[in-house]
Design a protein that fits this description.
By secondary structure, the protein is mainly alpha-helical. It has one domain. It has five helices and two strands. It has a two-stranded antiparallel ribbon. Helix 1 runs antiparallel to helix 3, helix 3 crosses helix 5 and helix 4 runs antiparallel to helix 5. The protein is globular, with a radius of gyration of 15 Å. It starts with 7 loop residues before the first helix and ends in a 15-residue tail after the last helix.
């Protein structure tokens, strides 16, 4: 709950997700939430856009979406991340999924290391 916009309900949902998959690493936890990209390249659909898999936890994705829904209320580096992707011409939904993924990875790191959120620690781009 030390991350802005992560209230009690979102924190509980993420905690349940992390406890359920306690041995998962960063890549696996993103996949288990259904936020990893899926590329379809067979037959005539080789030019389709990538989408998220949505094969993971629906409640976890919903909680993360609600957290990033009003991104301007998030911490400064999340806002900077959003604006940087926006300048690159990314669509809004793609940016929100990237924010959801970043928020999930940061929260998972805090859970694994039993730490409190420190804005200066996660300000670099190594969290993605």
């Amino acid at each position: 709950q030390t991350i802005k916009r992560v209230g009690e309900k979102i924190a509980i949902e993420l905690l349940l997700h992390f406890i359920k998959y306690s041995d998962a690493n960063k890549k696996q936890i993103v996949s288990l939430a259904g936020l990893e990209p899926v590329h379809r390249e067979s037959g005539s659909s080789y030019k389709t856009k990538s989408r998220i898999s949505k094969s993971g936890s629906v409640s976890c994705r919903s909680a993360l979406f609600m957290a990033v829904f009003s991104y301007k209320q998030l911490n400064l580096q999340f806002v900077e991340f959003y604006e940087r992707l926006e300048k690159q011409g990314k669509p809004t939904n793609v940016i929100k999924v990237a924010l959801m993924r970043k928020l999930l990875v940061v929260a998972h790191s805090l859970y694994k290391n039993n730490e409190i959120y420190d804005e200066s620690k996660y300000s670099n781009e190594n969290t993605i």
